[in-house]
Design a protein that fits this description.
The structure holds two protein chains of two kinds. Chain A is mainly alpha-helical. Chain A is 75% helix and 0% strand. In chain A, helix 3 crosses helix 4 (59-97) and helix 3 packs parallel to helix 5 (114-129). Chain A starts with a helix and ends in a 13-residue tail after the last helix. In chain B, helix 1 packs across helix 2. Classes of the chains: A mainly alpha, B mainly alpha. The A-B interface holds A 126, 130-132, 265, 269, 280-281, 284-286, 288-290, 292, 295, 298-299, 331, 335, 338 and B 36-38, 40-41, 44-45, 56-58, 60-62.
Amino acid sequence: MVVFSVWLITPRRFRWAILLVASLFFYAWAKPIYLGLLVATILVSFYSALKMDEHTKETSKKLWYLYLSIGFNLGVLIVFKYLGFFTDIFAHFVALLSSNISINPLKLMLPIGISFYTFQSIGYSFDVYYKLRKPERHIGYFALFVSFFPQILSGPIGRSNELFPQIHQPQKFSWDNVGYGIQRFTWGLFKKIVIADRLDAYVNTIYENIGTYQGSVLWLGTILFAFQLYADFSAYTDMAIGVARFFGFKLAENFDFPFLSKSITEFWRRWHISLSNWLRDYLYTPLQFSKKKWKKWATVYAIFVTFFICGLWHGAKFTFVIFGLIQALALTYEMLTRDKRQKWSKTFPPFLYNNFSWFFTFVVTLISFVFFRADSTADAFLLLQKQFTTFYDLSAVKLFIKQQGGISFLFSMLLLLFFILIDKSFSNRFKQQTINPYLLNAMVSVLIVIIILFGTFGKINFIYFQF
Amino acid sequence: MEKYHEQLTQVFRNVFQNNSIEITRSTTAVDIDQWDSITHLDLITATEEAFKIEITGFDVMGLKNVGDLLDLIARKLEG
């Protein structure tokens, strides 16, 4: 609010500066020590891009500067995020060889937003390298690109061709933008406080006591987790998009009803869109084309590497890697069976084929989410084993519901159902970018009432902040 | 660019096994059902074979639509 008021009174030409100061201040307030890291990243990426352009005809020099930027960004990311992971592996390996040596793995605190802003900078570096855009010559504009506060913490991962034109233009105030921003933000707040945080309690109970529950309850827990994750993360995206809109910025969408997907391939066009597009453009496609002569195996190779990285991007745990590998296996299966499935879609009645595809996709998604949520691979495998052996025990589910307070659990489910039903119409309105002002007021009032009445309040913590 | 349009249309029709596909300069993967990041490779290699050119990863990076692809083909053939 403070930022907005200051922004309002600043002449348009300098508004970017207000946003930059706000972004840096915001970041420093969240984690002061790492502001230096952010600034260093900005400087290295900015400088390498200019040098790449200068040496654009000298391929090896140009490549050197690309490596500089990517190396620095990735290096920073790897050190802070994965050093512990690798030294753990190393320590285990050493322990196997000799029980005398013990290594204390170095565990550094994860700088907030690091997975997002480093990827955003790397994307920019690639764009300049591939001559998709000229480097930004204004350090202030570039710094804003990397550190823009609505999106620095958890995305959406911005692309240079989307953000720079908006940064360069003086941002105008408009009531439409404010209206849209408030709506979008409130919708996100609703999703987070009323839906995601409510589900959190149930999911935690189940996932922290895998041993005590039957497969049927574990399925319930995983389904609730899927919705919790979706509500939580898309809520953050909504709030980011809403806040950015106050300042006239249009950020990219991140979700498109992912659980409607009828294939995993489709899932990645609907889930965490900014990340999957980023991976597709800067990792998957170059990999695929570098091994062109392997034909379809080039694609398989690209899929596995990309989703290994995708899994790893989420965190320094084997469970995330397995999450990625499950996705890779599913995508490879879909790719190799494309023609066969095409035939099936024509042989079977559409109703049957489509619903089966949806069901199968949802189950695969849930299985991969088990790995996403479980604390360890041991937990995950135990959970899966139970899910596939005692899934029919409905009395266990009834008992669980009773233990969670019966009526209050069912009420939460009702809210979840309400959310699922209205999600599509709300989101479609947002995508249209136009808002009916009366509807706006009605919506916001109702949402605020709902949030106050049904929200669970407490420590605000977004799942994707840990990434 | 129009001289390559017909030939490229045929490439699309072959790769996606659909003889009713029509392409314009602004056509993108969104407009054609089976065209996605997975089949993109098939499309590009088929284009290479049809026009007897080589398309590298670098070339592919900036392609946003069929228009860009037609321009790329023209650049490769006409220098």
